[in-house]
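Reopening this ticket.

The earlier resolution said the output was attached, but the attachment link was broken on my side. Pasting everything inline this time so it's all in one place.
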Amino acid sequence: MESGYFRKGFGLKQEIEGDLSAAYHSRLVERLKTENYTLTVGDLTFRLAREFGFCYGVDRAVEYAYESRKKFPDRRLFLVGEIIHNPHVNARLREIGVTIIGYDPEGAFDFSGVRPDDVVLLPAFGVTVRDFERLRAIGCVLVDTTCGSVLNVWKRVERYAKDGFTSVVHGKHQHEETKATVSQAGRFGTGKYLIVRDMDEALVLCRWIERGDNAAEMETTFGERVSPGFAFARDLERIGVANQTTMLAGESLAIATRIGEALARRYGLDKLDAHFRSFDTICSATQDRQDAVLELIEEPLDAMLVIGGYNSSNTNNLARICAGRVTTFHIADAECIRPERGAIRHKPVDASAEVETAGWLDGVGHIGITAGASTPNNKIGEAIERVLESRGLRVDV
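Inline output:
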């Protein structure tokens, strides 16, 4: 039996390149990139954002999963949850023999079927300290694909905990990355955390910091999103701000600013350094994709397609940016485009379910395209082809 922990790959990239290309490559997307990110076919023009799709961290995680299958061909290979938030990618992993570990009735990952001679992939989001320790206790081989940007946030949270600061994390409390991040505070015994979802919630927190007269509102808002034994009166005197790496960058920075201002009013500007710390921990790929889509929607567009999993935080935020400026359709993949019906299935911003819109291409001539960091190029290319089919058009590549 071989046990171990791996984070740096197995040097098998050349051996898996053919598999990756077959699964995720798109000649149509490559064509757009070589033609100034623009494609005109008939009366339709597509404009592709200059930063889109798979980021370095996702590339690395997917490559490492394929390398693991090559490295351990005779071992059972497991994945803790989804490697990234894209149903196509996770389905492909199942096809190469990866078993995705789900949850038990109590909501914890069910590791009961994992044996010491198995290989377990840790996803790009990372796992909680507790789940990591549970897997180490089993003695299985661990292949860690946690994104480097996520690890940088963990280091900040660890430092806050060591120095006696409560981590206020801008993120979604049910997201795997945020769960893993806040668990880092608990590694140092007295480390505390509180999770803020958006600016409205941040303002609730700021009122408490400045005035301390909204205890009931604090409990209602954050009661289930704080560390065990958290006391608002005790644990919010010293705050370090961090964030889930895929949140809206501008909102994360604005939240940090407001919290700093509230602490300055409470304790005095001259004492702020003793009560407040903040670092921009939005990953560069998330920022690049948000910047690129902001640039794209400055162009005259009739509609915007945002492609990516509905549970993908960075994809949802791209859709939110676009929806404020142009008619936007967030689709999970190309299958959402229904040429035979002249319709599209999509998830409106902040909606909990898909809707279907008929006649969505009526009067549309210019379409913007972007995709979340977990969306492979072939899904982008397929979506463009289905849009063209909806107009009775096709493109040769």
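Reporter confirms the inline version is readable. Residues 49 and 370 are 5 Å apart (CA to CA). The chain is about 40% helix and 15% strand.
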